[in-house]
Amino acid sequence: MWLGKSAVVGVGLSKFGKREDASLRELAAEAVYESFQDARDIEPGDVEAVIVASSQPERLVVQSHVAPLICEYLGVKPSKGAFRVESACSSGGVALRMADIMIRSGEASKVLVVGVEKMTEAPRSEVMTTLSIVGDKDWESIHGITAPAGFALAAQRHMLEYGTKEEHLGLVAVKNHANAELNPKAMFRRRITLNEYKDSPPIAKPLKLLDCSPICDGASCVILTDAEDARKYNDTPVVVKSITQTTIGNSSTTVDDLTTWKPLVEAASRAYSLAGISPKQVDVAEVHDCFTIAEIIEYEDLGFCGKGYGGRFVEEGQSAIGGEVAVNTSGGLKAKGHPIGATGIAQVVEITLQLRGEAGKRQVSGADIGLTHNLGGFAVNHVVGIYGRMT
Ligand SMILES: CC(C)(COP(=O)(O)OP(=O)(O)OC[C@H]1O[C@@H](n2cnc3c(N)ncnc32)[C@H](O)[C@@H]1OP(=O)(O)O)[C@@H](O)C(=O)NCCC(=O)NCCS
């Protein structure tokens, strides 16, 4: 049994946004082809296993069994199989974790991990129902709770307990839109001002339109190999130091503290310990800002700042490029976009570019250690990954 490490040798991302020009399989292919151009001496036919993260293609594009479907379109016949992972918004993070486990266990040495979601094709009412049934249909969704409403409760509580202000939420959105302007693949490549944020329409108090991640289409891809072979396929591979996951249940009743996400604290603590690093060593992080309040809580629960200081952390510019830890340099879910299944893998695409020094105008100088955090459901399911440059 091989219990070494896996490494990223190729990454690809489709353009995110309303992609009327591409079907689900075409979006996936866009990201996959880019990842094979990024790697060297490896072809789609060489991969042994394919894992596809896609949250609800049955409802969004009326198609199931999407992993074999995408393999057929790519002309790939993986000898160790193809399968789909569904874990709501954390589908991508879980798919990467499965791929890492397959490689470290010796089951496969080359795994293709693809994330894809096409959310803009179905009628909007169908999309909203699809998103809301991630919650407990019988006990919660049926009463009308949606993702914005759930995260609004966390925002209200954080404001009450820690004095977090509307401006703090707004500064997360302003930062992430500014980063997205520098990312050619982002959905919203435009800066916003704090006043524009304040004037945006209310969604679920205190959250406004510009606190929310959008409904969007997109795909992402990562080629993982065992770290010992990685230099054959890329001059600058990125090592997976650890990927952990913690789940506490599904309904919001399992979250006993709206402002400290205990499963995140637990997943992060294990990820740091397995990687042998402390939060202060993280140079760049892609975290799950499905709503701006989530990014503020995540600064705290990932240990970037103390509990209750998340608002001040963004206000002081500590999460901006050039700050203590650059967070969501891609534009994050807020401004790059959040095609559900693609998100967790897209986070690793950005971290890989950053650690290789290839992030262009949004490059974090001297980035050595990167972190990803992918969340599913009402903050009930968390995946944390730590990545480093191969020395
Ligand atoms: C916030 C939300 C309700 C807005 O939906 P909507 O009111 O139907 O908005 P529309 O799609 O009709 O877009 C209206 C305008 O707002 C813009 N817009 C939509 N969502 C936006 C967002 N999140 N940020 C910035 N602008 C946004 C659109 O581009 C459009 O602009 P235009 O008029 O200049 O073309 C919807 O994006 C949403 O539900 N987001 C959360 C998704 C979610 O829950 N994901 C899972 C997270 S756990």
UniProtKB/TrEMBL annotation:
SUPFAM superfamilies: Thiolase-like. One of its GO terms (molecular function) is acyltransferase activity, transferring groups other than amino-acyl groups. It comes from the Archaea. Residues 8-226 form the Thiolase N-terminal domain. The keyword Protease does not apply. Residues 251-389 form the Thiolase C-terminal domain. Keywords: Isoprene biosynthesis. It holds the Pfam family Thiolase_C_1. One of its GO terms (biological process) is isoprenoid biosynthetic process. Gene3D superfamilies: 3.40.47.10. InterPro entries: Thiolase, Thiolase-like, Thiolase_C_2, Thiolase_N. The keyword Hydrolase does not apply. This is Thiolase domain-containing protein. It comes from Caldiarchaeum subterraneum. The lineage of its organism: Archaea, Nitrososphaerota, Candidatus Caldarchaeales, Candidatus Caldarchaeaceae, Candidatus Caldarchaeum.
